[in-house]
Amino acid sequence: MSADNNKILVVGGGMSGLTAAIEAAESGAQVILTEKEPYLGGRVAQLHRYFPKLCPPTCGLEIQFRRIRENPRITFHTMAEVTQVSGSAGEFEVTVQVKPRYVNDRCVACDACAEACPSWRVNDFNYGLDKTKAAYLPYDMAFPLKYVIDMSACTGDCGQKCAEACQYEAIDLNMQPQTFTYQVGAIVLASGWELYDVSQVETLGAGQVKNVITNMQMERLAAANGPTGGKIQRPSDNQPPKRVAFVQCAGSRDENHLPYCSYICCMASLKQVTYLREQNPESEATVFYIDLRTPGRYEQFMWKVRDDEGVNLIRGKVAKVEQQPGTDNVVVTVEDTVSGRKLKETFDMVVLAAGMVPTTKNSPFPLPLSYTPEGFVIPELLPDGVFAVASMKSPLDVMKSNEDATGAALKSLISLSRR
Amino acid sequence: MEERKYAAYLCKGCGIGEVIDFAELSKVATREAKLQNVKEHDILCSPEGLEMIKQDIANEGVNCLLIGACSPRVKFEEFDFPGCIIERVGLRELVAWTQDPENKETQPLAEDYIRMYGAKIKKTDLPEPFQHEEELSKTILVIGGGAAGLAAALFAARNEYEVILVEKEADLGGYGAKLHRATPSSYPYTQLQDPPVFAKIKEVEAEPNIRVLTNTQVVKMEGQPGLLDVTLSINGAEETMRIGAIVMAVGWKPYDATKLGHLGYGASPDVITILEMEEMAKNGKIVRPSDGKVPESVAFVLCAGQRDPEHLPYCSDICCATSVKQALYVREANPNAAAMILYTDIRIPGQLELFYKEAQSDPGLMFTKAEVTGVEPAPGGVLKVSAQDTLLGENVAFEADLVVLATGMVPVTADDPVLQLEYRQGPGLPDLELFNGFADSNFICFPYETRRTAIYAAGGTRQPMGMGMAMDDGVGAALKAIQAIEHNAAAMAVHPRAWDETFPDPIMQRCTQCKRCTEECPFGAIDEDEKGTPFFKINRCRRCGTCMGACPERIINFKDFSVDILGSMFKSLDVPTEDDLEDEEEEVPLRLLGLVCENDAYPALDAAGLHKLKIDPTVRFVPLRCMGSFNLVWVSDAFSRGVDGMLLLGCKHGDDYQCHFAKGSELCAYRLTKLSETLDKLGLEADRVQLIEIAISEYDKLPQIVDDFVKRLQEIGPNPFKGM
Fold first, then answer.
1. This prediction's pTM
2. Reported ipTM
3. Beta-bridge mates of residue B621
């Protein structure tokens, strides 16, 4: 590998992008990593725990970030998007647009700007469950640990209070977008997935029924650094729910929504059952499923949850989720397909196991790639020197995403050395 | 470093200057820590602050820098001065953000940190990369010529590494080559495919960097990665070769169907396994073994032995899709035949759902959830399949001409060490019972890792998986093998300290051959001779420091981390005694040490700081590489100095361990069980040293954990050796 053509572009700084980037860099490549959010870590940074070990994702991220800190071969841009790609394998030219953060490298994360800021924005990191100031730190373990200003939320009429409050000259409200051009030999696409908009599944009540939340919102509710400080509360009255229903395949395995299975939702819901049961021994969790998909050695995790006396696993596709008249409770209508009984049960809160949508469904990469109708990249049809990773190809869990990303690192190295 | 010139740079920014008296802090740095050049700055990480440091390095020859500012986890680019020894102490997080400026214990806390890190920097050296006397091999050995092994060999070779591919059978391909057709692996996921393994075999055979050895088995392996002498038996003749790293892709074997008598196996020749069905299909004739007739009805019994604590306590991942595929074989061979698929749950996840959906549209395929309770021969030469809890009713019986049992996968590593390592800790990978015999690890974030360095597991021996996944797995494992080779060549550690150039460097003259290091190393990195003399095999080492923690003679050291360095830090503390009290009513404040895992508990402390949580000021926190490096000698170092207690914050251990060195926190806990006797003899209470498990995300629990510990120490009372 000669020095000038051994660069790899990795698009996406979530777990699989980080893995591809770090593994390639530790094997000798120079890596440019781009991430559209103001922090690295992606979706897993929003998870309270991983299944099946129930360990915190920040633990693995900490090692990944340290590997980045210690490795001079990795350059990363946050708030960055790849806007243009030309050339071919071995000699791509890529244009990376970096949006202004309005906070420079002098930031020490002291919070003075946020304290001074009078404007609020919906906190997308917490899936809309709370708000942050327009000047904010994405989350407490964010890497890089730097604030950012959301200009769309900044009213601008406060007289630049954030800039005045900052003792470190870190606020630059005139910051301009930056454009970088890189010559790279290979491209690894790792832009991951988004949560399916379950309000599209009208029968399930998302957005209509007060105490219906998504699985990702449940992750944030359980996390100490989430909107409730880690206390699982239902949105309507901030009370800890006692009876909670988990509705599987909320959109997934449904011709009208996502015809595929989203792979992680069964394990994710079983995991979330443990959050609930751990916080409140009086609580009861009911999981309504079509098939319990806990493949491989995940089976034993399912057994552990199933054998908990506060847990009911019921086979049946939920027909309807609606508000109980006169209360904030939620009524779930479902047919238990094993007993044949039609059930109508009332819960304090309902968690919808919303599925995975590849980000490329809504924002395709600026190269003519072949996608399935659902927006997944078709890997066999990728151009030479371009590799897609993990959930861009098919829904996967974190472990399998990392496996795939590690392999993609080798494939991209080969496409460099073969030039 | 020839001439060491020390300097301390103390930052007043981020509120540090408002909480700490800098005149006094500087005095400690100068007079007690004896650092030659002590400077303060309002914002040390600003370009001006950094320029000040750079000037000192250039003009004053400063090369040992104590930076008292923020956590080493932030501003790492700013405070990077190549060629210098740098110690960073997070006064911001550990003092300014977590302490009450009005509390009179706050200033002593900050001063103790300067004392400790002052002591540390005096004893820390820059790493000097380990030099091997012989050239390291870059050859990759791939064990197993199935789907995973073929892919590993092929991709490693394409990245220009020499590969030895070993297969115990006469032919490459493994189970992938025994398939008639493969389940779809690409959009639209509706058509069965040719098994991809044959194309891979051709590519492997055409690849000049791969030496394929069939009819070959591993006899033994000696040495360490890069210098690993592997003896193979090739068609019965032994040959030894030097290897850099290994991909272990030895695959799986089918679960023994004779144990499934309750499902009719053995009772009728017409009850066959999923593999026997595949073989029939491949031979072009799906018939009943008993009479050679083409079956009109075939029942597929899923989870035959799987998901069953009596047999295999896991799901084999591929049997649902494979059974659907075989049902399609049946329908293709005989369009009048009916196939029944009796399942617990249909597990065909991801986009393969589209395959399942397509199959459901075939009217000749019937799917029902069913717990099959028995299969037995019935009159008329058919088989009676009894089931309960079906979608068709409580207790049901079906008749079928042929029954196919979807038997599961058993990893080869379940009862075969495979590797034949001549390592002190044994020939195979340790503790695989945690993973039902699979050569897996507990790492969700870090696939392919095993507890033998530079040996990576891939494919069906690692986890239950199908051929497509196994091929991807092989590629990933090959990358890790390449990385291990390159890191060893550069004298750097591999995961999880992939940047580390330090290594354990024992003072062998003082070794008492107690064997603790060789027994405890989680990675089996240390061999020994018959007398018990340890031999450190550096390329097997992950740099966790467990050996350093195990050694009672305190002779195992890293350049920047040693028993002496930490001991010196503890001995540097200023421990107040009754003589220091101004007021007789006062009590002597406690002095406590917090030894914390640097990857998890330490970042949690930083997060507690960011959230401005208050932490008791009597505890001084020091990060350890791993709790496994905790040496009991430190207890006497600290207690003889007058320290009242030690709080250890490590990662969860046990079956679901979170320790990235697998055994570190567990070994620490084990050592503590020995400690209570020692403390007893000294008349000290066992509770003075406590190990608490904490995860990185549990910053919110830290104040309470610390408070509880402090409260307990207050109950116990001060260390009676204080001031002696």
1. 0.97
2. 0.97
3. B594
Residues B566 and B634: beta-carbon distance below 8 Å: yes
How many residues comprise chain A? 419
Vertex A410: Cα angle to A405 and A415 (nearest 5): 120
So what's the pLDDT on residue A418? 65
Q: Do B347 and A291 touch (CB under 8 A)?
A: yes
CA angle, A334 as apex, A328 and A336 as ends, to 5°?
Answer: 140
pLDDT in tens, B2-30: 899 999 999 999 999 999 999 999 999 99
Residue-wise pLDDT tens digits, B271-326: 999 999 999 999 999 999 999 999 999 999 999 999 999 999 999 999 999 999 99
Structure confidence at residue B724 (pLDDT): 74
Q: Which residues of A318-331 are buried (b: 16+ CB within 10 A; e: fewer)?
A: beebbbeeeebbbb
Question: How far away is chain B from the Cα of A3, in angstroms, using its nearest Cα?
Answer: 16
CA A282 to chain centre: 31
- At B630 the three-state DSSP class reads coil
Instruction: Report the residue from B13, B347, B603 with minimal CB separation from A293.
Output: B347
Whose CA is closest to B244, among B149, B135, B160?
B135
Residue closest to B441 by CA, chosen among B419, B420, B461, B465: B461
- Residues B700 and A222: their CA atoms lie apart, in Å, by 13
Do the beta carbons of residue B605 and residue B638 sit within 8 Å? no
Q: Which of B158, B196, B136, B251 is nearest to B489 (CA)?
A: B136
Predicted confidence (pLDDT) at residue A2 exceeds the cutoff of 70: no
What is the predicted pLDDT for the residue at B115? 98
Kindly state the greatest CA–CA separation across chain A.
71
Contacts of A294 in chain B (CB under 8 A): 315, 347
Distance of CA A6 to the CA centre of its chain: 30
Residue A88, min C-alpha distance to chain B (Å): 20
- What one-character DSSP code corresponds to residue B624? E
Structure-token match 């091997």, residue found: B132
A210: its two tokens: 């007060």
Residue whose token pair is 């399930």: A204
Q: Do B265 and B258 meet the contact criterion of CB atoms below 8 Å apart? A: yes
- Classify B478 as helix, strand or coil: helix
First-to-last C-alpha distance (Å) of chain A: 9
| Segment B585-605, tens digit of pLDDT | 888 999 999 999 999 999 999
Tally of CA atoms within 13 A in the half-sphere of B556 that contains its CB? 29
Question: What is the Cα–Cα distance from B47 to A394, expressed in whole angstroms?
Answer: 46
> Who among A60, A294, A403 is closest to B472 (CB)?
A403
Beta strands across the sheet bearing B237-243: B216-224, B227-234, B237-243
Instruction: Tell me the chain B residues in contact with residue A60 when contact means C-beta distances shorter than 8 Å.
Output: 443-446
CA A307 to chain centre: 30
B414 Cβ contact list (under 8 Å, min separation 6):
B432, B436, B437, B438
- Residues A136, A150: Cα–Cα separation, whole Å: 8
Q: Kindly state the average pLDDT of the residues A139-152.
A: 97
Beta bridge partners of A250: A354
Cα-Cα-Cα-Cα torsion B94, B98, B100, B101, nearest 10 degrees, comes to: 50
Interface test with B, best of A23, A410, A412, A417 (most B CBs within 10 A): A410
In chain B, residues with a C-beta closer than 8 Å to the C-beta of A168 are 13, 43, 46
Q: Give the closest-approach CA distance of A210 to chain B in angstroms.
A: 29
How far is residue B186's CA from residue B351's CA, in Å, rounded to a whole number?
9
Distance from CA of B19 to the nearest CA of A (A): 15
Tens digits of residue pLDDT in B647-682: 999 999 999 999 999 999 999 999 999 998 888 888
Q: What is the pLDDT of residue B578?
A: 86
Give the residue from chain B lying closest to A70, CA to CA.
Answer: B499
The pLDDT score that the predictor gives to residue B92 is 98
